[in-house]
Amino acid sequence: MKRPSARDASLPRVAVILVAAGSGTRLGLGIPKAFVPLAGRTILEWSLSAVAQSARVAQIIVVTPDGEQSFSVEEALRSITRVRPQTPPVSVAVVAGGVNRTESVRAGLASLIPEIDTVMVHDAARAATPPEVFDRVVSAISSGAVGAVPVLPVVDTLNSVGKEGVLGDIVDRSTVVHIQTPQGFARTQLVAAYNAVEGREFSDDASVMRAAGHEIRSVTGDQKSLKITTPPDLERVASWLEKSMGGSLMRVGTGTDVHRFDPGEELWLAGLYWPEESGLAGHSDGDVVAHAIVDALLSAAGLGDIGGLFGTEEEKFQGAHGEVFLKETARLLTQEGFIIRNVAVQLIGVRPKVSPRRLEAERVLSESIGAPVSLSATTTDGLGFTGRGEGLCAIATALIAVVDG
Question: 14-244: what CATH class?
Answer without folding.
Answer: alpha beta
